[in-house]
Amino acid sequence: MFLQQLINGIALGSTYALIALGYTMVYGIITLINFAHGEIFMVGAFVGLLLVSVLKLNIFLAMAGSMAFCMIMGVVIEFIAYRPLRKSSRLSALISAIGVSIFLSSLAMMVFGANAKGFPSEAFPARQLHIGNADISTLQLLIIGVSALLMLALEFIVQKTKIGKAMRATSEDYNTAALMGINVNFVISFTFALGSALAAAGGVLVGLLFNSVSFNMGLMAGLKAFAAAVLGGIGSIPGAMLGGLLLGVAEVFGVAIGYSSYRDAIAFAILVLVLLVRPTGLLGRKILKKV
Amino acid sequence: MALLKLDKATIRFGGLVAVNGVNLEVEEGEILALIGPNGAGKSTIFNLITGIYAPTEGKISFKGTNISGRPPYVIAGSGIGRTFQNIRLFSQQTVLDNVLIGAHTRGNWNLSGALLKFLPAVRREEGRLLELAIHCLSKVDLAHRAFDLACNLSYGEQRRLEIARALAIEPALLLLDEPAAGMNPQEKQTLLTMVKNIREAGVTVFLVEHDMKFVMGLSDRIAVLDYGVKIADGRPEEVRSNPAVIEAYLGKGAH
Amino acid sequence: MLNNLVNSIDPYLLQILVNIGIGIILALGLNIITGLTGQLSLGHAAFMSVGAFTGALLTIKLGLPFYLTILLSGSITAVVAALIGWPILRLSGDYLAICTLGFAEIVKVVFLNLDITNKALGLTVPLPPSFLPMPIIVLIVVVLAIIASAFIQNSRFGRALMAIRDDEIAAESMGINIARYKVQSFAVSAFLAGIGGCLYGHFLGYINPSDFGFLKSIDMLSMIVLGGLGSVPGAVFGASILSAAPEFLRFMSQYRMLVYGALLVFLMVFRPNGLLGGVNFTDLVLRKLGVKPHLATHKQEGQ
Questions:
Q1: Where do transmembrane segments lie in this chain (chain C) (predicted)?
Q2: Taking the C-alpha atoms of C253, C257, C260 and C265 in order, what is their torsion angle to the nearest 10 degrees?
Q3: A30, A92, A173, C91: which one has the fewest Cβ atoms less than 10 Å from its Cβ?
Q4: What CATH number should be reported for the domain holding residue C23?
């Protein structure tokens, strides 16, 4: 029972983590809460669904296609809606992000209708495995495996590559990075591309997990993932992973012990409690007052 | 009794001891300057006095009351006004509003006063604060710019506005953090007179400053800080000829 | 007589006007904590919700007079906000924002599970008898809220809030008790949100916890950012436009929200400080009336 719920929680949590990474990376670099990020996740799910059901692509290819599509979309959104506002107040950029979010979800509703769609059953024929006394579906293993792989890839890019180094420098100090000859615009575009790709993968995985893709799935998933990013310490990549997993596990256990009707409040209750004890999140850096 | 007394004040940031066991007294009515090389811990001492940081060890007392570790707003309210090394004005507000904010502790009406603005008592207080603000502005010769935005003032004017804002607290002790930085010689001369006038009006002045000519011309007494430790304390001419001070500024073997 | 006047207005237009009025009350409320004090709240709909349900229950269970109900809804909401605000307003910037968002979601879910709020079914709110017709009451509250906001902005209290917004360290070095002012402005802000919610519930006749979700909070925030943060005319203007916009965009029916979203982006990109941002109305008016120049005499006395 415990093992079973733990696996359920980790599967759900890794999807939160995938989305949370996009929030945290963008925030780390331009301190913007990218409220359209949840919508990118939603679009990612729809694109994956289209590729599977219309083009009959294999689920992995569909996921790759959806990631590529959302990468471009993320870059375009940044270019149109955020770049012109980079020198303005952060609230203006936030409202712009909210505008993008409303635009995308209403667009999705017009195109795909208000009803939730499911993946065709042959997209990923899940089987149940019995490990001890736990029933674990191969789908959950797929989700955990793909998420882990993507996060490792991200960690590699950020820590070992040249562009990753530029990202870290920009997030440390935007202006100095620009003075050192780093092409900050490119770094920002790249960050949006990476974050959007992860969200798209998360979208396809969540679509499979709940067998439901709908125009409004981005809102709550986005909010919870954002909560996960803040819980871990916004701007911190390991923090986003940790925060996502924690919230996913907590939510599953909360439901399991009988608080299912409070499901959507669990993540936020944990977030608020943690922030009261650690005001900058679990792995967030302490802010020293500069005078 | 000294107006302000630092008793073995110490603060550590992680492993770094920024201020180390500093004993210092500021006497009522004097102008005391704190000098020392960059990074000696001068601004940190100001931040300790004003409560931005709490001392790791030691005690700071003002008018005989222990103020170490009290929050900044309490310390300001007890009569310590300050300026900042990197100017921290409310730059999008008018010059007058900046000083009115400085006069905050001189008023009492809060939310109820805002909603009952028309009551004679509230209007009297607003009038009083306004007069105080204009008075402070005129002391630094900025009254004619009252309705300009603070960000539209020149650098030297902004430094003076910070002084006016601190004066609006009607402080017993005024802390000036590099008041002459970025000013031309003429502006510095004007500032010198202004600070002297402020002292004549009964305000004790404690300042951090790099410009030696300015410090020598203004201060009654000078304390020298190096690597967080006080290495000298005395009248300007004493400090000027103190070997330890020369060494701190010019390095070993300079004299 | 007033009833006749109100009845003579086209009911559809009247409905839009009342919506605008309630929007203005909510926007002015949010403007106090976010525009003046600079603390981003992404959960103000929760306070609207608390006010709406408090008002509805006072009417249904206790049958209190409407004016008292309005006042109590605002006050109770303010107390709730102060209790919530006291621990969380220590948090800085975006951490505070997400915390308010989190609280709003929690309030929503809790209301969806309580018997007294009738769970997910929501409450039908009867309109209590009152001397004045509803639209006139809304109008009066709007006028009072505008006056109160303008008073606050030009007072010792308001100056302290703006000082906190612009530079917390400088503000506390001027003797301003930051924590206390933040909680107070949060409570005042919630007071207006609570009253707005109470009016909303009684006007609509039906409330449901789901009505007060994240998107409602965002609606309010858009109003004040669109109008120009920290500006009372801006909040009024932004609230008017955004409350009326869905109606004017109605002819596009299904494209409505699509256009609304694009419009938000468009407006921000071209007017990042809001439509009325950077315009100081008090100054303009005072200068027109010749009130400010008399300070010049003050200045000469000083010199």
A1: 12-33, 40-60, 66-88, 95-114, 134-152, 183-203, 223-245, 257-279
A2: -150
A3: A173
A4: 1.10.3470
